[in-house]
Amino acid sequence: MKAYCNKCNYEFEYTPKSMKDLENLKCPRCEEKVSPKSKKTYKQNEKEKRIDNTLYTIINILRIFYLIVSIIGLIGYFMGIKKILIICAVICIIIYSIERIFDTNYLWLLIPIIILSFIICYIKLNLVIDSIFLSICIGFALSTLIREVYFLLLDLIILISNKKNRD
What we know:
mainly alpha
């Protein structure tokens, strides 16, 4: 097992033979009494903090990437520029496929929304190709909105529970 001395910042291995050993655990370096539950804390340096902040910003942008691209595609469709719709739908599918390869995507309602929106679009438009690309953009936009509302609600619940714990 591992233990950590808070006094001299030394991490060491130990093998307890009895409960008394755990109660009387001492640091081999400074002989200070050590709790078996103590863990080494890690502090980030400035470079690591900047990298974390940059990655956090990129992740936040990617969270709404699908929404932005799919809305651009929908606007293109309603303005009569179907090439924009097709390009945006293909971009969403390619990025989504890459995310699925790395298992990092959380659009759990995407496929049902695409299927449902395809059925509705096909009934209204009676055009298969337009309905496919339109339903892809609608699916990405709606599933991203649902995911963001879900995350906002989770953040609100956490905020309220933290506030109640402090009171």
